[in-house]
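Propose amino acids for all 373 sites.
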């Protein structure tokens, strides 16, 4: 029997081809696993009205970890139009399966290491090394949304809203509401993950990125929780700054940042910035980590326009597999993969178009395998 059971979820678009590349590398490094394919994504939305079928959730619950490719998400109306005709008007609503997995499995920590591989032609500058810890289950992604707004809710908001907002809810206007939910539990989980990681890896600064001067209650709770947790880590410097200021300084002085911890949507945005500073979406990997399970995925999307061409960069997916090996405790294999990728980039011979090369997806995977040997 193989040592590990891995849920294998390629998803949509380029997901399939970058997963194929990752598999070539996992096999070559000697990772002993049984891979079980799972259904997820657009195809299942169209045919079943559910992009994350229950059988896939069961699969996640019965495996050691999951490697995930990419999925296509479309706004409400467009999604409805693509449903199979017999499913139309049955009340199905699309919601992102990756967001669903994060919540259903309480994968509270989204860790996005953004470390520039030296000499990567796609780097903004060499030497940048930032890890974003993004809260992964709540915030503006909690999925508590209202539209249209029922009168009862509108009245209730008017009644309870006296305290701060000067916004006139009584205006007879169309209103849509998405709640930004921050819980002490969620904030504690993500902030603890960030500090524990700092401690484990010998990093000396954690930056809390929120907006407590305006979003007073939710950012306020997040920040207070951060200050409390920081007391348990006396050796680590804690910096607090507003999310917009951090976005600005990241562009100017990214070397000043080390670990950044923030809520869900802010982390989504910031990690795209840090990803782009360190080589782009082609190399940016993410780990969705809970207490007992984790799902690893590239930060990029399904890039439908490139699908089937085997031209996109598989490094983000291979790096996600590397993060999976780290999490499973197979650190030696993980390090070998990292070094092989670094060497490949340094040589600049077999690179995909985003790094200025002409190689295909599987060429890169095969070259990484040669470097492993
Ligand atoms: C990410 C992606 C997802 C997100 C999308 C695909 C739902 O942008 O993982 O950063 O917004 O979290
Ligand atoms: Mg994103």
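Proposal:
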């Amino acid at each position: 029997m193989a040592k590990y059971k891995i849920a294998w979820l390629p998803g949509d678009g380029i997901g399939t081809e970058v997963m194929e590349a990752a598999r070539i590398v996992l096999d070559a490094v000697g990772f002993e696993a049984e891979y079980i394919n799972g259904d997820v994504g657009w195809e299942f939305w169209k045919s079943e009205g559910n992009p994350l079928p229950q059988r896939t959730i069961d699969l996640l619950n019965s495996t050691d970890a999951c490697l995930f490719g990419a999925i296509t998400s479309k706004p409400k109306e467009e999604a409805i139009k693509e449903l199979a005709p017999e499913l139309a008007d049955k009340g199905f609503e699309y919601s992102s399966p990756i967001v669903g997995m994060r919540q259903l499995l309480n994968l509270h920590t989204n860790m996005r290491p953004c470390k520039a591989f030296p000499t990567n032609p796609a780097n903004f500058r060499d030497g940048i090394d930032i890890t974003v810890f993004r809260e992964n289950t709540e915030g503006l992604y909690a999925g508590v949304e209202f539209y249209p707004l029922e009168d009862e809710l509108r009245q209730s908001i008017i009644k309870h809203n006296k305290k701060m907002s000067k916004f006139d809810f009584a205006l007879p206007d169309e209103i849509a509401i998405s709640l930004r939910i921050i819980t002490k539990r969620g904030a504690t989980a993500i902030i603890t993950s960030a500090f524990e990681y700092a401690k484990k890896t010998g990093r000396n600064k954690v930056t809390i990125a929120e907006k407590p001067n305006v979003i007073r209650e939710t950012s306020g709770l997040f920040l207070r929780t951060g200050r409390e947790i920081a007391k348990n880590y006396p050796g680590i410097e804690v910096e607090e700054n507003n999310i917009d200021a951090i976005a600005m300084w990241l562009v100017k002085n990214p070397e000043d940042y080390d670990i950044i911890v923030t809520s869900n949507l802010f982390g989504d945005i910031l990690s795209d910035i840090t990803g782009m500073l360190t080589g782009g979406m082609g190399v940016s990997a993410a780990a969705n980590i809970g207490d007992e399970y984790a799902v690893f995925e590239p930060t990029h999307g399904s890039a439908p326009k490139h699908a089937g061409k085997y031209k996109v960069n598989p490094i983000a997916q291979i790096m996600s597999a590397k993060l999976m090996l780290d999490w499973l405790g197979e650190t030696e294999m993980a390090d070998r993969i990292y070094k092989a990728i670094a060497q490949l980039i340094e040589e600049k011979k077999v690179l995909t178009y985003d790094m200025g090369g002409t190689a295909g997806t599987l060429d890169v995977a095969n070259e990484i395998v040669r470097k492993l040997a």
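The mean pLDDT is 95. The first strand starts at residue 4 and ends at 11.
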